[in-house]
Amino acid sequence: MGKDPVTDGWSALLRPAWLPAVAVLVGGVLLHSMNVLMLATVLPSVVEDVGGATLMSWTSSAFLASSIVAATCTGYLTAIVGARNVFCAGALIFGAGALTCALAPSMGQIVAGRFVQGFGGGLLTAMAYVLVRNTFPDRLWARAFALLSGAWSMSILVGPLTGGVFARYGDWRGAFFSVAGLACILAAVAFRALPRTLSSGARPRVPGLRVALICLAIAAMSLTAVAAHPAAKAGLFAAAIAALALTLMVDRRAAAPLLPSDAFSLQSATGIGLWLALLVSIAYSPLQIFVPIFLQVLHGLDPLSAGYMVAGASFGWTVVSLIVAGASPQRTDRLLVAGPVMMAAGLLGVALLIPLEPAPAVFPAIALTGAGIGACWAFIAQRVMTGARMGEEDRAASSLATVQQTGFALGAALAGLAANAAGLSGGLNRADVAAAAFWVPVSFVVAALAATVMGSRLARHRPATRD
Question: Which helix (H) or strand (E) holds 292?
């Protein structure tokens, strides 16, 4: 199908033959992504019920860390059992994790359930990126990725809405029961819509050392948020960075690498694009995790109202990503820079406006942050894939999910560190939350500015379009 002559419009992507695949891919990404903010919306209710305020950021770190593990194993699992089976298994594992959370008596078990959920979600999102490349011609990749970006942005509406409705009526567990049901439905639809197999018949080895190093890095970063002594915090942070660097070194020497050979190189479009993907994902993390909590505590909003406020990012991300999807190469160069700049301005605005009355005063800043990632994400993905070296196209495609989830996980851990350093570890009293509401988003402006530098550099590496 990918070789048929097509036009460049939306009608080409949404032709009847491709609609089932499009629906499954968007649905899988949406199921995975909506749960980050769904939990953030119900988290105050969860803490009130089972305690564990100091472990709040761990619920996201565990989810995203296992997503990374799953993303790194997707190619290996696909080669063994086929794409359809991997996707369906991911949906069912995701549902099992949601059921674990729904039945949890303590925050520790919720963290465990989120870890299981994350593994299933990582399989879903990684397969989505690979299937875009294998299903559609490269001239439609930007539009396909715009739809996937739309799924990520829609999650900021659907996630808080799902959690908020249940939390408003004192039934946060019901939110997880509903997610488990949706996961089973997705698995059934995917079984019919996806190809019977994309396996190669090979039996590759699971990259155990690299997966272990990634887990070590995320665990060390998460522990920095609860470590009491400054020296311990610094040591854990250094250990996390060292583990990630070692992962990259081991991967480049492996017979079957997980990442492109030029991953995070500053001399290639793919390498710079992965840096940019990592940084914008890190910068986006505090919006997903903490803003709903800040709004509920500082302004007395109920979970559903706070969820709708944070949906401003969904609005910005979706609208902007769809508007710019057909942009010319010259315009995309500017968007690669403008997107991170918008995120930096949005995060600074959130920090300054969130304590002000009325609560909707912060809405434009939230929307601007979402618009920033919507302006550039599809083109980051396109540059990473079109800039891939010969024979590494699938590896570059699947690496996007791994890098994105790594960025979200690192951002979640750093957001927890910033929040606890500002005093949030003591609980959800107003004074501590007010301090965290300023320092958490301000801390991530640095990541957005670093992404601006990488966006400028990537704009000077424009790969030729493939036929």
Answer: helix 291-299
Question: What are the helix and strand counts (H, E) for the chain?
Answer: 17, 0
Measured CA to CA, the distance from residue 190 to residue 84 in angstroms comes to 7
Task: Using alpha carbons, select from 303, 302, 309, 294 the residue that is nearest to residue 433.
Answer: 294
What's the rounded Cα separation, in Å, for the pair 19 and 419? Answer: 43
The rounded mean pLDDT for the chain is 82
Q: What is the pLDDT of residue 466?
A: 46
Contact 342, 376 (CB under 8 A): no
Q: 13-458 maps to which CATH number? A: 1.20.1250.20
Tell whether the torsion through CA atoms of 417, 423, 429 and 435 is positive or negative: negative
Percent helix, strand, coil in the chain, to 5, is: 80, 0, 20
For residue 416, give both structure tokens.
Answer: 């927890």
User: Model confidence over 376-387: pLDDT tens digits?
Assistant: 998 998 899 888
State the Cα–Cα distance between residues 463 and 147, nearest whole angstrom: 22
Is the pLDDT assigned to residue 18 strictly greater than 90?
Answer: no
Report residue 125 as tokens: 């999102």
Residue 348 confidence (pLDDT): 97
Closest CA to 143 of 274, 13, 276: 13
What is the per-residue pLDDT across 78-98, written as a single tens digit (0 to 9) for each? 777 777 788 889 999 999 999
169 closest CA partner among 288, 45, 311, 48:
45
